[in-house]
Amino acid sequence: MLARLAGTIELFPDSSSRFHSRAMAGLLAQASAVLAASTVMPVAGLKGLAVWFGIPALALIWGPVRRQLGECLPPQPKHLFGILLACAACASGPVFMHDTGMYHYQAIRWLASEGTLPGIAMLHHRLGFSSSWLAASAVFDFGPWEASSATVLNGLLFALMTGHWIAIAGKADRRREDLLLLAGYPVIILLAVFQRMHVSPSPNLPVGVGILLSGWCLEKGARGSALMLAASAFAVKANAAPALAIAAVAYWGDVRTRARVYVTGALLALPLIAANLISSGCPMYPSSLFCLETPSSVGDAAASRVTEETLQWARYGGPYPAGVEYWSLRWLPGWLQQPLNALLVMLVAGCLLALRRTGVGWAAALGLTGTAYVLAAAPDFRFVIGYAAILSGCLAMGFPRMVDWTRKVSRNCWVVLAIALVLINGAAHEALHAWYIPGGRVEVGITRLLKPVKLPAPETRVEQRGEVPIRVPVEHQCWAAELGCTPYPPAASIRFCDAARGWRGGLCR
Questions:
Q1: Ranges of H-type helices in 317-410
Q2: Which residue among 17, 20, 36, 240 sits deepest, i.e. has the most Cβ atoms within 10 Å of its Cβ?
Q3: Helix locations, 241-338, DSSP H
């Protein structure tokens, strides 16, 4: 539907990649639509479901979309079903990711029950990090699935990504651009498994996939599709801005459909800017660029402090020295000692070496530009994952023999191996959870696939900030505590913008 709307060529015409790539592109675009809806209404329950399923239903009225629907079936349904079942069994387990307990799920609850709230970043600065992926997760956070469905989308995306890699690995007629995904997906998959991203609502996984797919489309020459994917990834998280910029420049030469493609891309990207303006008063939050001076805005100074904290925390991997300057390199030796950071440096060097053979293409430009941007803004491997995957793919395109061995393994073997690794990873983490945490054993059975393990609701104490009651968790993470929870109570006094409406009216200074 997006390709037809933009007037471009067919989206992902390669039959072996069509189902997986279209499904992932659709998830990202749908999430952007839900974030746009959250700026005017809560998105849980019937309202959110109407947006989530209503847009595809309306698209079926369009003849070209109906005609292409039959082409979107998976090439190997049994393989995909097995992978989906394994990922569902893993994703329905307990969530361990620190950021989910810190703010991911609280953001989902706010979006589910109230939508994007004015000034919510004043309650906890991380709640101002708007994301279409968190908004999409909020659609299903209602009724019996409240505090249980936050991991569903990442589990589904992980399964589609794994299936896509297997489909490409088993191709007999692989093209040069397929090597980008063949070597790029493992970077994302391994980090996701290592950090349990697929068992969390973390936006780092979908933004990484969107950036990689955008680079793949650039390499294939499908620049309109690349722009739409980059715009959808930007709505997930703003660190996709370099990908959006590169894709926009790459598409500039096609005069015939330029306006329609740019308008479609803007419709996909703008919900993030709108949501940021509402939640923090800054369109590119946490950047202080173009921050508004309104009662519900955090203001330039507060946004700058968050930017500085994000940068230095990523550089030092934790607490950092007071008063450290931006251009100081004191952080670099310790940063390079971290294995993932050392891997990133090697991928950059390998990509530059490969460019001597392949020349500088749009995908390589995207990977190198995006990596430089993240290193300057917040050098954490989680944030650079999509660009690192492209660097890995560029290395494989320059030295294709590195991945030739994947042809020798049958597709059935890859499926069995993927299912086994996913299940072993899930079982190992749950065993550790039961071992270290008193009462941490979780139910394992078919019913868990229908109703995943609920997030914990920690004990909180109530503190007053002005007229606003704040809930502070005893153990530093909010998880599924009642709304109004923050691990960092605001130092300044805040108030309800409309005392009669309470939280629904938003927060003001």
A1: 332-336, 339-358, 362-377, 385-398
A2: 240
A3: 241-251, 258-279, 299-316, 332-336
3-state secondary structure of 495: strand
Calculated CA dihedral for residues 70, 219, 87, 452, nearest 10 degrees: -90
Burial, 61: exposed, middle or buried (Cβ in 10 Å; 0-12, 13-18, 19+)?
exposed
Distance, in Å, from the CA atom of 13 to the CA atom of 464, rounded to the nearest integer, reads: 57
As a whole number of angstroms, the distance between CA 365 and CA 361 comes to 6
Q: Which of 506, 457, 465, 467 is nearest to 488 (CA)?
A: 465
Helix residue spans in 446-489 (DSSP H): 447-450
pTM passes above 0.90: yes
| Closest CA relative to residue 125, chosen from 313, 323, 320 | 313
CB atoms within 10 A of CB 504: 15
- Residues of the chain above pLDDT 70, percent: 91
The verdict on whether omega for the bond into residue 201 sits within 30 degrees of 0, i.e. cis, is: no
| Conformation bin of residue 439: beta by default, left when phi > 0, alpha when psi is -120 to 50 | left
Q: 408 with 166: CB under 8 angstroms?
A: no
Rounded Cα–Cα distance for residues 194 and 197 (Å): 8
- Cβ-in-10-Å burial (0-12, 13-18, 19+) of 214 comes to buried
